[in-house]
Every structure is written in C-alpha cells, then in structure tokens.
Amino acid sequence: MRVREIDGLAALAADYDGILCDVWGVVHNGVASFAAATDALSRFRRARGPVVLVTNAPRPSGPVIEQLRSLGVPDEAYDRIVTSGDVTRRFVAARPGTKVFHLGHPRDLPFYEGLPVELVGEDEAELVSCTGLFDDYTETPEDYREMLGRFVARGLVMVCANPDIVVERGDTLVYCAGALARLYDELGGETVLAGKPHPPIYRTALELTGLPPGARVLAIGDALGTDARGARNAGLDLLFVSGGIHEADFGPPGAPDPERIAMHFRAEGLEAVGYMPHLAWSRSAGGNAKPDVAGEALVTRTGGR
Q: Whole-angstrom Cα distance, residue 291 to residue 84?
C-alpha cells in the first residue's frame, strides 16, 4: 500500500462535508500555532462545512480554548472542540463521593472542577485519575513504577484522561498520561480510556459537527497510534500530517520518504487518503506550517493530540 502525497487540503476539500482535526502537532506545537494549518481549516469552514478540533488534552475544553488563543490559533479556524478531559470527566462524574488520587501536574486541576469527588492522598485513594506526570520536563514513566505497583496491588482502577504516549513540545518529545497507563497495564492494573483512539471521543466529536448520519467527514492527524487508529476505528478517512511526532521516522524534515510512510502504515494495518508534511490549504498558500519560534510554551500541558 502506498500513501500518496497531496498538495494540500484544497485537493480533498470537495469530497468532505466536515473535518475532525487533531490539535497538538497539526495546529500548534505547544509553543506557537501553525499559520498555514489554521488558514487551511478556516478556508475549509468557509467553503465546505464544520471543523471540530479533537484533542487528547486532559482538561475540559474551556481552558484549552484559552490556551489555543494564547498560542495564536484564531477562533475562526474551528467551530467546536472536544477534549479527552471532557469525555473522561463523565466516567468520574458517574462515581459521586469517590476518593480520587490525582496523578499529574497542578495545571490539570480544572479537570475536577464541578465533579462530585474528593481529591485525597495516595493512601486514601479509591480511584487513580491520571492526567500526566508530575514533571514531564524531567521525569519518565520509570520514575512511577513503584507508586503504580502499589496501586495495582490494591486493585485500584486508573482513569487516564490523556491516552497520548508522547507529545511534541517545541522540538522536544515529552511523556504523557498514556505512557503511565501503558505501564499500569503492564503491571497488571486496569485502565479506563475515553480519548483518541477510543470510540467515546469520536462519537462526541461527530455529534458536535451537527452533520447528519452518513455525512462525509475527514480526520486529520499526525499520530499513528491515536489519530490514524482512531480514524480507522470510527470509519473515517484520514489525512496524515507526517511532520509531527513521527517526523524523524520518515526521513529528512519537510521531505518525508513515501516508502517509509507506507511501511509504517502497513506495519500498523492503517490507511490514509493522503499525507503532507504540514497541514496547509496548498503549497502556494503556504506549505510549511512549522513556526520559527524559540522558547518555552506559553501554556503547557501533558497531552492534546
């Protein structure tokens, strides 16, 4: 199977009524937005139909919208947004009075706002809620092996608010909550995940488009394990952005080898209607979506693909 390179979203737009688009790695990199990508989504909205952003961010959509604005993503680039935090909150909300241990950075505490649960320490916990690592700049999942082993021994369920394994922050890959959930599984624990590539977030996203059943919806993303697999599971065509977290696997930056891309898709049993290094309406409209920005993220998080 060969995945063809396309000139831009314009080459596919007429075939689709709506778009479900990944965020981190396609629309921004945690440091700044990609102007060509937001332009492409804005053009699709004007010409064709709704755009719903679908992200594995572990927080509710409100704070994520504010983050997008701070990174320069214009409101006109999308209609609605659904986060892994949104759909995961429903699982926690259905367990009122539960004592919950929050595993993650304090910036993710908005996840619990309005939920009828009590945040407690490790020894009192009845449920583990993971939004990421305490410090994703310096820590790895191995730093949590002993703690997770103690939770497994007590038979606690881990609710993972962000299934991503890693995310690209600027030019660096950092671990996300999904990496801890994977280790929890390896240790024999039970995990609950609702974000990409799992069905709950896609059901919600398709509802938010407002399109009728049978409408043609295109998924856009840069991660094989979440975006590509999630699109396949949801029965959606995929436009693959090769310049995201897998860029180093495909050859020189900005000039991926089609055979390498095809090899990875075959190995994973996945398909795509096309790929481009970075999302843009067309090459003439601006084909390189990577910003020339240095420094730390204005607002950081542990997920959001």
A: 26
